[in-house]
Amino acid sequence: MIKRAAALLSLLLLGLVFLRLVVDYAPHTALNPISEHYVAAGPDELGAANIVTAVLVTYRGLDTLGEVAVFFISAAGVGLLLRRRERDMGKTTTHRPASELVGTAVHFLLPLIFLLGAYIFINGHLTPGGGFQGGAVLASGIMLRLLADPHARLRHRTVHLLESSAGFGYVLVGVLGLALAGGFLDNRFLDLGTFGELFSAGAMPIIYVLIGVKVGTELGAVLERMKE
Amino acid sequence: MSQLINATSLPFVVLAAGFLVILIGLWGMLTRRNIIQIIIGFSLTDTGVHMLMVAVGYLNGRTAPILDAAVDRASAASVVVDPIPSALVLTAIVIGLGITALMLSYAIQIHKKNGSLSIDDCSELKG
């Protein structure tokens, strides 16, 4: 009881601090100089219509590489914690089969879900969306597959190959930017193309496709581990 | 209602809601004994922080930082919201997801070992 009261008291005090922050908050009326530069110069410098993508993939590309690394480490941690033990291998648990509705829906929806995911990450430099969102959509397809058939296994060799080649490709694109253009992860070593076209913005779509594949396979592997 | 939440008060509403969600999450983390509930509390706090970041990047009456027919390239800087918080939130969401997945797998391991999800049964570090 005393613990609860202490928690309540400290949260109330924290709430007072927050209240002051909200009441005294003065919304910005203009972009700050760095954002203004990104918005004004981004389309000309990098050829991307989606400025969030320009910031994420190129201006602050190193952060995103770090983010992908953190996500990889957490997925590896999940794999380590939930690895199948040797003695559990023989055990087969019987699951109630999924309903026919789900089973049929998988055949119909899975290609569409994968198509949508690929569409989202290929168009990341033009429309809302990108590698992380598209990857999450791919993983939702894998989730549906696992729901329909709990005994389904991902082809681990394929998944590992896809994941590691996507990660390697990402770093390779970054190094190519360093060698052929202005710096690490610079997207301008490829032609910027026509503004607003699918094949434009230099290496940006390539990076987002790689991120999409990597996030999709990692999330899918995490889901498969969680299921067991 | 429409006067209470008009365009100028939108950042305040999101900001206040974000702080509220943070407080709810902290309350959950401080008072619950079930590990899954603690993880839900963490996720709530995480989401609250994302709401704050989006609210701070919002500029009244402006649109998403994506150039198309409606957003002219020349005048873009005066009609779009700040793209940097949006990019940061995207990063934060993915990292939060990774951390949540890792915490849940720890919870699974603890449940396997102790047979319960209560943190009172985790006595390894108690003096």
Give structural notes.
The complex is a heterodimer of chains A (228) and B (127). In chain A, α3 (51-59) packs across α4 (61-81). The radius of gyration of chain A is 22 Å and the shape is globular. Chain A has eight helices and no strands. The longest helix of chain A is centred in the C-terminal third of the chain and has 25 residues, at 156-180. Chain A has one domain (45-76, 100-227). With 228 residues, chain A is an all-alpha fold. In chain B, α1 runs antiparallel to α2 (35-57) and α2 packs antiparallel against α3 (83-114). Chain B has helices at residues 10-31, 35-57, 83-114. In chain B, 61% of the residues lie in helices and 0% in strands. The longest helix of chain B is centred in the C-terminal third of the chain and has 32 residues, at 83-114. Chain B has 127 residues and is mostly helical. Chain B is built from three helices and no strands. Chain B has one domain (2-61, 75-118): Helix Hairpins, CATH 1.10.287. Chain B starts with 9 loop residues before the first helix and ends in a 13-residue tail after the last helix. The interface between A and B is large, with 56 and 46 residues.
